[in-house]
Amino acid sequence: MADQGNAPTGRSQGQAATRGRLSRTERRSQLLDAAREVFVVSGFHAASMDAIAARAGISKPVLYQHFPGKLELYLALLDVGTESLEQAVRDALASTTDNHERVNATIRAYFAFMSDPDSTFRLVFESDLTGEPAVRERVDAVMHACTLAVTEVIAEDTQFDHEAAMLLAAGLTGSAQVAARWWLTQDGSLPRGSAEQLIASLAWRGISGFPRADGEAVD
Length: 219
Fold this sequence. Notes:
By secondary structure, the chain is mainly alpha-helical.
């Protein structure tokens, strides 16, 4: 007689199947995670839907049920990355009313985004698909959105009109982005906290020299 002590009951089999079945949202998240890993390592052109499906542990037809093609999958990832960066910058600006700390928080937001273990920043700022209009549009849009968020704070606190405030904001966000990316390519001898402090000090010494709308120095 077969040993039935270790045989799963109908109920336990059903529970196991339920536990193994992902919702559409969960499956989409899983596929995006797998795609991110493949795109970061291989780039868009060298990556394949076969490799992404294999990384996710599913069949390619299942992958196509969620994303009709490789570009659509890449753009979905790009949307996640750009939304994450914009939200991080807006959260940093809203975290305090002290302008010195706002600068510090904004710089930290850029360094945190560049340092994310998922390497999402590579899809945003180091894509091998920059010639694709849909990609360029998304990258330009997030850069503009982050600049605009900083512009709103500068325009509110200073005597500058929108155009001048936006130019200053572009300088701040641009330097934060470039410095964070450059720091990441180095050998790691300079700790992240020290790098953030250096760039934040540089930014603050520049922006704090402009007068507030009430005639006081920017605090």
